[in-house]
């Protein structure tokens, strides 16, 4: 797999070829990935996978027309063919008044910050196999677990490099460790399954495999005997691994491209009190070893920590260059890039600050409610904010968890849900978006 320096050299070469061939401006992004994973089931090795990939994407501008294309052919002839095709496509593309590279004066200058995203230690296949077996064994040892969907362990390395025709050239690398276990509890006619999964850049930041397995087994067993529950309006409490999805919907609605397309339920509500004044939602793309940390965005701007929600209101829209121009807004350093195509928008390392009550205290006055540990379905309308998802979890009776429930639907509107949201004090940093346990009163719950 190529390293960061080689990726930068190839991006620079491709951009130079595009400029010589007639592009008014261009940028190139290279990505390289290698990964190895081991999966086991019922104590036996089931699969070993190894993959490597390298690709480079070119975006060219001819006036206000643009096109992008990607290849895995890094030869000189391949680059020339890529440039020729990209320019031909751009000359036939429609005029876009908002197209263009990010302003040169806004680009990251100087060396990017070291975010400690790469682990020097690379586990070998036998170590991965041992970790996967340990996770599955711990899950199967939980009383009530009767079968296994398997355990897994993996390791990956990645490199990203971005070069623009107006002077930006930076790259960085990262590693990833992963552990998972998924098991089945119960007997025929009453089976339940659940899982546990963790990822981190450094192995020392991962929990022990046995902890992952034990958590998967306990979650599956806890779901046994699930029933439905009567419908109606009631308090709903979201487990942290599910509650972060609510903030994901908020981030989608704060996306500059979504606002520009008139497809966000937050349009016209930028100055509106959307949350309780005590709620703060923070983004820190420069957090050391953060899962989504990055030193610069997909257009070469420095990434900056910021408060996304404070004093009840959102800070504004998360923009890339095109949406900032279209909306007349400032650039915020949120551009994201895949291997090809125009930049999108994404946030990095988002968390909601914890509240003052523990999860038990947060629920103690709930006479009848629902604790959600899983949701499914795509019932979220990004234009209206209407929310309706299938769910499972536990019934809350007199402030205590009182048995598993499933085959239910929870519904509301995200605007109402945000205003009613109350966080507990149990925030942990495990995912790309992290929240504590969340309580929302007045949601509609429908059972069978």
TrEMBL record:
Transmembrane segments: none annotated. Residues 121-224 form the Metalloprotease TldD/E central domain. Coiled coil: none annotated. Residues 232-447 form the Metalloprotease TldD/E C-terminal domain. SUPFAM superfamilies: Putative modulator of DNA gyrase, PmbA/TldD (SSF111283). Residues 26-90 form the Metalloprotease TldD/E N-terminal domain. Belongs to the peptidase U62 family. PANTHER family: METALLOPROTEASE PMBA (PTHR43421). This is TldD/PmbA family protein.
